[in-house]
């Protein structure tokens, strides 16, 4: 392995520039290749970021011995195929969310990377925002006492044109779902990270507005393994999109925050004020507004996890939790029953 970690990006869609910027913004990384079945898109990104090697077939890219790691930016339903191939080629992997769209595929991905002794990290930017980290530390310090309620409200807007912009959007086969699997997966990951794992869920989901086969609106009631309850809402149907908000309640206090910062920070028998944090760039109405700072952190973390031989910040096992919960929500909505998670 050279002094710099040599990366390639697989996939040249909307999120790929965030991957390229994060790699090129790291002094320990070098971006040497990109692949996409639509080779014209890959070529444009290669020109924009001065990437020397362009491929239409990612399998050919993986044959290069001057690539140490790849980032995965293909549609969600193709994640497992590409990650497994990368692992078998001996490449470390940073995979865009969701990890994949089926439980079996995620198991195969994780097993392939463990067997090949390569790192598998998953991008969940909300975990590294300042507000999320501060809230997590407050919970771990016991400031809220026994946790009672943990809610995630993710009311985004996506236009009909958004779903028409790519044939895979809004499909079960490739997108894996709608408002939850594509947009809401970030907040679902975060609320579990803050509150702890979920024990069971009961849910409704449907396409109430958009002409798509997956959901544009969903609501779920969850029970966490620690005994607390919670509500998860996710949409692409409401106009205008709202700031994503997290409400955390315990017997001794409440923390509420959204993309602009803390809205409430109240601890019993304390005059402690809400910490000042940097606001987060919101993509509530437009996916092109997704902030890049999280990708910088996850690329750097993957590099350090390789050098230190440790799991990435969000490992495959950790990254699958949000998808497992979303799949349980879909099962509950279809069956009309409460679903227990493993």
From TrEMBL:
Q: Which InterPro entries match?
A: Gfo/Idh/MocA-like_OxRdtase_C (IPR004104), Gfo/Idh/MocA-like_OxRdtase_N (IPR000683), Gfo/Idh/MocA_Oxidoreductase (IPR052515), NAD(P)-bd_dom_sf (IPR036291)
> Residue ranges of the Gfo/Idh/MocA-like oxidoreductase N-terminal domain?
5-120
Task: Tell me the domain of life.
Answer: Bacteria
SUPFAM superfamilies to which the protein is assigned, alphabetical: Glyceraldehyde-3-phosphate dehydrogenase-like, C-terminal domain, NAD(P)-binding Rossmann-fold domains
Query: Domain Gfo/Idh/MocA-like oxidoreductase C-terminal, which positions?
Result: 136-341
* Coiled-coil annotated spans: none
| Assigned protein family | Belongs to the Gfo/Idh/MocA family.
Name this polypeptide is given: Gfo/Idh/MocA family oxidoreductase
- What does the record give as the organism's lineage? Bacteria, Bacillati, Bacillota, Bacilli, Bacillales
């Amino acid at each position: 392995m050279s002094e710099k970690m040599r990366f390639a990006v697989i996939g040249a869609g909307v999120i790929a520039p965030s991957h390229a910027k994060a790699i090129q913004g790291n002094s320990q990384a070098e971006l040497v290749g990109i692949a996409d079945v639509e080779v014209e898109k890959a070529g444009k990104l290669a020109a924009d970021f001065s990437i020397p090697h362009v491929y239409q077939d990612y399998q050919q890219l993986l044959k290069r011995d001057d690539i140490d790691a790849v980032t995965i930016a293909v549609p969600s339903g193709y994640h497992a195929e590409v990650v497994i191939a990368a692992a078998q080629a001996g490449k470390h992997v940073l995979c865009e969310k969701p990890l994949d769209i089926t439980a079996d595929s995620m198991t195969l991905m994780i097993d392939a990377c463990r067997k090949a002794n390569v790192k598998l990290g998953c991008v969940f930017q909300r975990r590294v925002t300042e507000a999320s980290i501060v809230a997590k530390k407050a919970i771990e310090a016991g400031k809220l006492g026994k946790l009672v309620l943990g809610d995630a409200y993710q009311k985004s807007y996506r236009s009909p044109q958004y779903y028409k912009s790519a044939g895979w959007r809004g499909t079960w086969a490739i997108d894996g779902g709608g408002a939850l699997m594509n947009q809401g997966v970030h907040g679902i990951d975060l609320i579990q990270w803050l509150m702890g794992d979920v024990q069971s869920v009961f849910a409704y989901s449907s396409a109430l507005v958009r002409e798509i086969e997956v959901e544009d609106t969903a609501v779920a009631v969850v029970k966490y393994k620690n005994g607390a309850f919670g509500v998860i809402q996710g949409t692409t149907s409401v106009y205008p999109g709202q700031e994503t908000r997290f409400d955390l309640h315990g017997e001794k206090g409440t923390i509420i925050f959204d993309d602009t910062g803390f809205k409430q920070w109240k601890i019993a028998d304390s005059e402690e004020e809400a910490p000042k944090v940097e606001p987060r760039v919101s993509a509530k109405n437009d996916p092109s507004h997704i902030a890049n700072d999280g990708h910088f952190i996850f690329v750097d973390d993957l590099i350090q996890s390789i050098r230190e031989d440790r799991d990435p910040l969000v490992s495959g096992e950790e990254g699958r939790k949000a998808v497992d919960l979303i799949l349980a929500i879909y099962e509950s909505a279809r069956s009309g029953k409460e679903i227990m998670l493993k």
